Amino acid sequence: MIHSMFHLQIPLLEKIVRPIIVYIFLIFLLRIFGKRELAQLNPFDLIVLLSLSNVVQNALIGPDNSVTGGIIGAASLLTINWLVVRFLYSSPQIDRIVEGTERVLIVDGVVDARALRKELLTREELLSAIHRQGFDGIADVQKCVLEPNGSFYIEGRKPSQADEQHVDLIGRLEAIQLELRQIQKRLPAA
User: Fold this and answer.
1) Which of 8, 77, 169, 178 would suit a FRET pair with 93, their CA atoms being 20 to 30 Å apart?
2) What DSSP line would sit under 31-69, residue for residue?
3) Residues 42-75: pLDDT tens digits?
4) How far apart are CA 128 and CA 35, in angstroms?
5) In this structure, are 93 and 6 located in the same domain?
């Protein structure tokens, strides 16, 4: 039993190369299919991502189900990921090619329908993202950007309630400071 658990059934080099090939292929596919898969995980996308792991499992491990093979495969995946992240960090131009660029979806409360189509986002999905950020609707958004990592940056057209309170508080403090200066001027010198 111990022998079958730890004995590699395929050559070590193949065990290392398989996960690397699958990793690079998946990065390429996710880049082609866009940020949508990262931005909006609807039930269909979730099913695809969960199924994807099963689909590529045999490509990753081959006919080897040993513990040693699993450890080598996991170490290979983590190593290639570590190398790719460091390489992309040191090469911003290549990082932009691999990760893509941001896409502006809304400017001054107006949706860029062409940008939505390119990202395969529906207006309802965009509205859902806007609601999650605390805005009532598209008209409340000054700018909405879909970042390369799939997150949304949303800037409101009018200041948030917290921003308005902050401005009001600063105004009141400045008024108090002015009153204190005037009071100090009226006090006799000590």
Assistant:
1) 77
2) HHH-THHHH---HHHHHHHHHHHHHHHHHHHTT---HHH
3) 666 667 777 777 777 877 777 877 888 888 888 8
4) 16
5) yes
